[in-house]
Amino acid sequence: MGKELDGPVCLKHPNRLAVAHCSVCRRPVCQECLIEDDGFKCCSEACLKMAKESTRRSADVVERRDRANARVNVGGIVRWIIIALLLVCAWVYRNNIKQVWNKVTGKSITQMQQESYQKQKMRTNQMTNEAMDVERTQQHRLKK
Ligand SMILES: [Zn+2]
Ligand SMILES: [Zn+2]
User: Ligand 2 centroid to 8 CA: how many Å?
Assistant: First the structure.
């Protein structure tokens, strides 16, 4: 075997000594693999991104809140559109109902009128019959 390395070695280069540990995943990295940016020492671009994102978290929260607000606004708009559609549907439905109701009530009114007319006719017939009866009995009496 070759020479023994004193201390932690790079994860990707087992024959090289690590110069630092990744500040995100704590893996040992050699000088070549080390990525230094914004004061972070990372093993990879992915870890650097994560490190930067963790410091940007507070800003992220604000951003996320803004995004959530935007979503709420969109939700509100959608809600209003739905309400408007429901109103339109209700209006159309009511108009239809009105037409149907008019048809139904119109029919029923004519039926009722016919019925009442027939009843009245029957009543007047009865009355004339009664009157005729009375007349007839009076005539009978006069004859007797
Ligand atoms: Zn890492
Ligand atoms: Zn390396």
Answer: 11
Q: Where are the domains of the chain?
A: 1-55, 59-120
pLDDT tens for the chain, residues 1 to 144: 555 677 899 989 999 999 999 999 999 999 999 999 988 999 999 999 999 888 777 666 777 788 888 877 788 888 889 999 999 988 888 888 878 777 777 766 677 788 888 888 888 888 888 888 888 888 887 776
Residue 134 pairs with which residues in a beta bridge?
Answer: none
Q: Model-level pTM greater than 0.90?
A: no
Distance 46 CA to ligand 2 centre (A): 15
Distance CA 13, CA 33 (A): 9
